[in-house]
C-alpha cells in the first residue's frame, strides 16, 4: 500500500486547476443542489466539476440532521452511511460524500457525474495484460505503451468483482489488497493494476509500470478467490520473552477485534484530511504566485510527517476493524489522488 500512496503523491505535483471559494452557501452551481447546513463556521470551494465545503464548530447533531436533509434532496442511490460518514448518489449520478470528525468538523463533497462515451480499450502493452472489460460504454482518459487510466460504465458491483477475479487469473496477484469495491496488485513484471468501483455502475481501471519495483524477488502466492468480503489481518508483533503476570499482554489478548480505537482512527483520519487539503490546493496551484509556492513547500513538509505517521500504523497491532479501515482509507486516498491527477 505504501507503494501506491508514494506513487500517486508524486503524480500530484504536476496538477493544476482553477476554483473559487467563500463563506456563504452558494445559490447557483453545484452547491445549490444541496441544502445549506444549519450550524458551524463555513468555508466553501467550488469549480465546474466539484464542490467542497468545510463546516467547523458544528453542533453535535449537525451530521445526522444534514444527512437527513440530503436524503430528502434525493441523495439515496447506493447509499452507505454510519455514525461518521455518508456516501450516496442522486438519480442523475451526482455523488455526495459527507464526513464527520471528532472535533465537530464536517466535510461535504459533491462530484459531477463522470462523462462517458464509447470505450476505446488501450492498445499498448499495458492494455494487453488484462482482459478487456465487457462493455462499450466508457472513457479512456490517458494511455501510452505502459500505462493507462479509463472509466467503464454499465458494470454492476457483482460484475466488477468477477472482473477482479479475471485480473487475478491474468497474473495480478502480488502485494495485493482487496475489498468488494477496490483492488490493487502487481504482476511479475512490475506493472501495478488498480481497480475501483466508483458507484452508479461505473468502475475505473488504472495501470502503471514501476520499473524500480523488484517484485520478482517477492513470494508470488496466488490469493484464493474470497467468497465474502475479506478482512486484513492485524500485523503481529515480534514475540517477546514471556513475563510473569504481564498485564499488557493480558490487555492485548482481550482487545475487541470489532473496535477502532480513538488514537488509531485519529491518525488515519488525519491522513485523509491532509490528502483532501493537498488535492484541493494543487487544483488551485499557480506556479507564478510566490505565496502559493511557499504554501506548497509547507505542504510538502507536512506530507512527509503525515505519511510517516500513517505508514507507521502498519507496524502496530491492529484489530480486524482497524486493519480494514486502514486499508479502505488507503485505497480511497489513492483513488482521490489518481483522479485528481487527471485534470
Description:
- By secondary structure, the protein is an alpha+beta fold.
- Helices cover 31% and strands 23% of the residues.
- It has seven helices and 14 strands.
- The chain has helices spanning 2-12, 62-72, 157-169, 247-253, 262-283, 290-312, 320-340, and strands at 20-22, 41-46, 50-56, 77-81, 85-89, 95-100, 106-111, 117-118, 137-143, 148-153, 174-178, 182-186, 191-199, 202-209.
- The longest helix has 23 residues, at 290-312.
- The radius of gyration is 21 Å and the shape is globular.
- It starts with a helix and ends with a helix.
- Residues 1-21 and 213-252 have low confidence and may be disordered.
Report the structural category.
alpha+beta
Order of strands, widest sheet: 1-2-3-7-6-5-4
The helix content is 25-40%
The shape, in one word, is: globular
Largest sheet: 7 strands, antiparallel
Q: Topology as H/E string? A: HEEEHEEEEEEEHEEEEHHHH
Please state roughly what percent of the residues sit in beta strands, choosing from under 5%, 5-15%, 15-25%, 25-35%, 35-45% or over 45%: 15-25%
* Beginning-to-end CA distance, first to last residue: 24 Å
Structure summarized in a few sentences:
This protein has seven helices and 14 strands.
Write the topology of this structure.
Layout: H1 2-12, E1 20-22, E2 41-46, E3 50-56, H2 62-72, E4 77-81, E5 85-89, E6 95-100, E7 106-111, E8 117-118, E9 137-143, E10 148-153, H3 157-169, E11 174-178, E12 182-186, E13 191-199, E14 202-209, H4 247-253, H5 262-283, H6 290-312, H7 320-340
Antiparallel strand pairs: 1-2, 2-3, 3-7, 4-5, 5-6, 6-7, 8-9, 9-10, 10-14, 11-12, 12-13, 13-14
Helix pairs in contact: 1-7, 5-6, 5-7
Amino acid at each position: 500500500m505504501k507503494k501506491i500512496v508514494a506513487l500517486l503523491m508524486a503524480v500530484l505535483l504536476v496538477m493544476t486547476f482553477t476554483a473559487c471559494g467563500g463563506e456563504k452557501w452558494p445559490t447557483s452551481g453545484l452547491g445549490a443542489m444541496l441544502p445549506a447546513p444549519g450550524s458551524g463556521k463555513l468555508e466553501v470551494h467550488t469549480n465546474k466539476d466539484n464542490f467542497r465545503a468545510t463546516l467547523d464548530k458544528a453542533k453535535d447533531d449537525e451530521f445526522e440532521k444534514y444527512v437527513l436533509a440530503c436524503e430528502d434532496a434525493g441523495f439515496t442511490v447506493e447509499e452507505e452511511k454510519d455514525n461518521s460518514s455518508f456516501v450516496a448518489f442522486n438519480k442523475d449520478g451526482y455523488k455526495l460524500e459527507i464526513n464527520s470528525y471528532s472535533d465537530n468538523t464536517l466535510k461535504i463533497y459533491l462530484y459531477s457525474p463522470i462523462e462517458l462515451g464509447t470505450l476505446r480499450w488501450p492498445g499498448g502493452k499495458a492494455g494487453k495484460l488484462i482482459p478487456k472489460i465487457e462493455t462499450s460504454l466508457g472513457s479512456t482518459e490517458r494511455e501510452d505503451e505502459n500505462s493507462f487510466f479509463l472509466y467503464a460504465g454499465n458494470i454492476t458491483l457483482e460484475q466488477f468483482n468477477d472482473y477482479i477475479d479475471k485480473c487475478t487469473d491474468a497474473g495480478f496477484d502480488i502485494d495485493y489488497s482487496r475489498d468488494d469495491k477496490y483492488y490493487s496488485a502487481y504482476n511479475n513484471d512490475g506493472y501495478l493494476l488498480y481497480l475501483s468501483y466508483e458507484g452508479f455502475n461505473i468502475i475505473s481501471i488504472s495501470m502503471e509500470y514501476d520499473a524500480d519495483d523488484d517484485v520478482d524477488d517477492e513470494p508470488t502466492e496466488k490469493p484464493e478467490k474470497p467468497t465474502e468480503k475479506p478482512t486484513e489481518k492485524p500485523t503481529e508483533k515480534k514475540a517477546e520473552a514471556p513475563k510473569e503476570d504481564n498485564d499488557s499482554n493480558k490487555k492485548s489478548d482481550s482487545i475487541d477485534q470489532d473496535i477502532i480505537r480513538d488514537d488509531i482512527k485519529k491518525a488515519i483520519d488525519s491522513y485523509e484530511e491532509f490528502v483532501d487539503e493537498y488535492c484541493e490546493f494543487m487544483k488551485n496551484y499557480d506556479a507564478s504566485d510566490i505565496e502559493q509556492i511557499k504554501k506548497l513547500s509547507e505542504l510538502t513538509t507536512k506530507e512527509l510527517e503525515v505519511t510517516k505517521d500513517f505508514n507507521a500504523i502498519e507496524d502496530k497491532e491492529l484489530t480486524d476493524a482497524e486493519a480494514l479501515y486502514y486499508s479502505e482509507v488507503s485505497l480511497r486516498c489513492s483513488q482521490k489522488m489518481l483522479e485528481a491527477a487527471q485534470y
